[in-house]
Amino acid sequence: KKETGMKDTNRKCIVTGNVIDKSGLLRFTVTPDRLVVPDFKKKLPGKGIYVTNSRRLLQKAIEKNLFAKAAKQKAKVAPELDLMVEQLLRKHALDAVSLARKAGVLVTGLEKVLEAIKKDKVAFVSEAKDAGDDGHQRIVLAARELEIFRLFDIEELDTALNKVNTVHAAFLKGEMAKMVHNEFNKLADFL
User: Fold this and answer.
1) What is the mean pLDDT of the chain?
2) Cβ atoms within 10 A of the Cβ of 89, count?
3) Helices (H), the chain
4) Which of these, 171, 172, 134, 173, lies nearest to 151 by C-alpha position?
5) Model pTM score
């Protein structure tokens, strides 16, 4: 039995039937005109419909018309819903990168990142997907147990950071890094 004031954060995935914490799920709702839309911030009216955070499972929900079954009404799903979800998750992750920069907990540039790693200040590293092999090898050797995310290309990182040629970024240990790490994991899990 739950203690008073404790909220149940578990929800059931409409594809797998598994009941898991909402943090591992994507939330959707059906609009009054019966369109299925992502509602990750839980701002839209309507009952939440949850799918485990995975492109494959989202595609299965679309193919098997599981949104309509869960909503107990007709529901239209845009054929590009999975792309829309990826774009939203990508935007949230890049917004988190921008916030980290503004908070001063982000180091960019290969040499500065390597120096921060050496001083044990780094929670994790982001490396552009289109990074060169030489820089990649140096980061891998230095990072050892640190997680290295390769989710964005140089252009995406440049836009998020308002910089030019951002290939490597290190997120310094702290609460902000945990928030960014969470957003990165959401995107990585979906992909």
Assistant:
1) 93
2) 24
3) 55-63, 66-71, 81-103, 110-118, 133-143, 154-161, 175-190
4) 171
5) 0.90
